[in-house]
Structures are given as structure tokens and as C-alpha cells.
């Protein structure tokens, strides 16, 4: 197992979904298990949870890849049971959450399932091209962008030359200088 390096909320990469959820704690008290409000962030590979939106260090993280997500109304007996979902993975800890609303719980499950389907797909997601466009100043993608950018310019060169000839107005008594 590779170690997950803790990262501040702002540095978690491409955020797919984030928001406050109640997370069931692992320790069970005399009154049963406790639900704690946590700021949760899902990016392409990792699920992070923080004490609050402003926290610098996550309370916990786990790689999302082999987990599955599903609505889980059995987790609570109160009026918020329709807001519950769980993340499960054989041989690993199960994470249980309560969203602010049933629709929000469904959205978390949908986002996670979509991500998992994308991660298990044998094809390369087209998002990688988007990353190159978004991060033009990153050295690793600069050569790729420059190459495709030059190709685009070369295709347009004939049109640019024609436009340049048309935009100059010859004034009476002045001749354009030969190049």
C-alpha cells in the first residue's frame, strides 16, 4: 500500500465533488456510533475528509479506485435515512455518510460511480487532452501544445497572408514600400 500524502483542501487537484457530509465515526460510544460533520472532497483518485472547509490537513484520505458507492437507508433510523450512502471495498474499511438531502446523497453516489467506471475503463479518458489545454505553462505538456499549436497556425497561414494584403489602404500620393 502506498502512503497518501496529506494535502490542504486547496491542493487536492481536479475536484469532482465537494461539500459537507456527516461521516459515521469508527468508534462506537455507549449511545451507538456518532455522526460527525466533515468537509469531503472527491478528486480523480482520492476521497479526502476534513474537519472543516478551511482545514489544512485532512482527517483522513483513501484511494477511491476499488471502492463502490451505493445509497444505504439502513444506516439511520431517523428522518435522514434517505440521505445516507456508503463506500465499500472488500477487505477494507466501509465509509458511511449522510448528505444534507436525498438528492445530494444520490449525486455523491452518481459522481463516485461515474469516476469508478472511468477508472476501470481500458480506454484513456479524453480529459487528459483538457488538462493540456488548461495547463499550457506546465513544461511536460508544453511540447505537445506547441506542436499542435504550430500545426494549427500552418493551416491558417495562407488565409492570414491574404487578409494582410486586404487590410492596408493605399493613400493618394504614397506608394507602399516594396519588401
From TrEMBL:
Keywords: Cell membrane, Cytoplasm, Membrane, Nucleus, Phosphoprotein
Main location group: membrane
Biased composition (Acidic residues): 126-140, 158-168
SUPFAM superfamilies xrefs: PH domain-like (SSF50729)
GO CC terms: cytoplasm; nucleus; plasma membrane
Compositional bias annotation for Polar residues: 141-157
Matches recorded under InterPro entries: PH-like_dom_sf, PH_domain, SKAP_fam
Pfam annotation, one family: PH
Lineage top rank: taxon: Eukaryota
Keyword flag Phosphoprotein: yes
PH domain mapped to chain residues: 14-117
Region entry Disordered, spans: 122-179
Localization (cell): Cell membrane; Cytoplasm; Nucleus
PANTHER family for this protein: SRC KINASE-ASSOCIATED PHOSPHOPROTEIN 1, SRC-ASSOCIATED ADAPTOR PROTEIN
Protein name: SKAP1 protein
Species of provenance: Galbula dea
Gene: Skap1
Amino acid at each position: 500500500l502506498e502512503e497518501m500524502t496529506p494535502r490542504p483542501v486547496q491542493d487536492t487537484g481536479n475536484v469532482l465533488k465537494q461539500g459537507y457530509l456527516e461521516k459515521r465515526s469508527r468508534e462506537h460510544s455507549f449511545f451507538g456510533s456518532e455522526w460527525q460533520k466533515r468537509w469531503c472532497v472527491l478528486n480523480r483518485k482520492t476521497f479526502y475528509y476534513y474537519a472543516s472547509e478551511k482545514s489544512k490537513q485532512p482527517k483522513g484520505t483513501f484511494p477511491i479506485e476499488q471502492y463502490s458507492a451505493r445509497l444505504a437507508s439502513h444506516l439511520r433510523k431517523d428522518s435522514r435515512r434517505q440521505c445516507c450512502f456508503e463506500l465499500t471495498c472488500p477487505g477494507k474499511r466501509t465509509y458511511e455518510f449522510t448528505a444534507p438531502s436525498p438528492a445530494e446523497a444520490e449525486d455523491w453516489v452518481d459522481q463516485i460511480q461515474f469516476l469508478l467506471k472511468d477508472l476501470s475503463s481500458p480506454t484513456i479518458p479524453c480529459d487528459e487532452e483538457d488538462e493540456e489545454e488548461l495547463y499550457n505553462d506546465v513544461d511536460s505538456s508544453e511540447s505537445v501544445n506547441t506542436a499542435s499549436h504550430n500545426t494549427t497556425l500552418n493551416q491558417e497561414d495562407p488565409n492570414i497572408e491574404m487578409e494582410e494584403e486586404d487590410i492596408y489602404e493605399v493613400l493618394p500620393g504614397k506608394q507602399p514600400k516594396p519588401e
